Amino acid sequence: MVAEIPLKRHVFTYRTLEVLGPEHEFSIVDENLKALPIVDKVIKDFHGRIVNFVELDNFTFGKELQLHVLEVKPNNPFKSPKDFEEKMHEAVLRLGDFLEKRYNASLLGTGMHPTLRLDETAVWPHRHRQIYEAFSRIFNLKQHGWLNIQSFQLNLPYADERDGVRLHNLLANVCAYLPAISASSPVYEGHFGEYVDNRLRFYMENQKEVPSITGNVVPEYIQSFRQYKKSIIEKYSLDLAKAGADKCILDKEWINSRGVIIRFERKAVEIRVMDEQECVKMDVALSCFIRALLGGLIKNGGSQLSPTGTLTEDFRAIIKYGLNANVLHPHGPTARDVCNYFLQVAWDNATTEEKTYLPFIKKRIEHGSLSETIRAKIEARMQKTDFDEAVLTVYSKLLKSLKDNEPFF
Q1: What domains sit in the chain, N to C, each tagged with a CATH number?
Q2: Is the pTM above the cut of 0.85?
């Protein structure tokens, strides 16, 4: 996810970590996995004209920068993980049924479309296009880091500035390790990438012309909201202005492309380092894991914050090598060790409802992220057929996983 243009909503005040606010991104594909850049057509089908977002009874869907990617989010955040799963799976089914009947198409999760060539999609050309045009004057949008990335984002509320700063810093300390579990992008342009998490590999590079926007993805620690606004938002806004940016992308909190950002408009901290998973149930599992982990760390008085430089090194190792990455962490020499420690903290603090989802995280840690599972399944299938057919076979099963809401192991 890059530079999300916010949907105007009323700001509600929740207790810290009280609710889960998910945002999902799915490709629209045909039966051969070909990406279909038809989001504007789908919106017009529902709304009668092209708008950015369509609000239905329990969820809102709409455009992303990429014309083949649909964003889906709830109208209100969830207190209950089971309610989250039920409502967002209903959204997936409703949109999927419509796409199947109208376009013989489906929704596909995961962090990157596996076969997309960059000339097979386009940038959203309608309302708000001036913002994307402003980006295009500074950045090359014709790259995977803009046109072929799908994230699962999670918004967690803070009650006041003290809790907002604390959540931000705790997430800065753990977000480097989340891709070891959440990576789901092993394939792009019809070949295996060099990384376990290729989405984040491209994400790191997509705004290199103004590096202060993304930083090192792992965010810096902060002491106050004022300092955050000055050292981060004001800094990249000044750098954008020097690069000749239009004022429509200056001084905007949502321009910040670090892996964790503060959304003052929502009174929430937003996590951006996770790839979209294969089904809503796994998105819920990640959400329960993170919320319970943060709650446990807060109860335990926080944790010793690792140096940002160390976290950045670990993050870069993890997006390349996944759970097997060697890291510099007090709770183990590998990413798998660190994730097992995090899981124990989460389990000790989780609600009864959250504990029904944590075994899925345990299984990911034991057997590999979705990215590693997809790669293994493709390699096994290649014993009987060629690579292209193996990709089609495996990703067709992922289409079914999303529809059936069944994790892919």
Answers
A1: 21-404 (3.30.590.20)
A2: yes
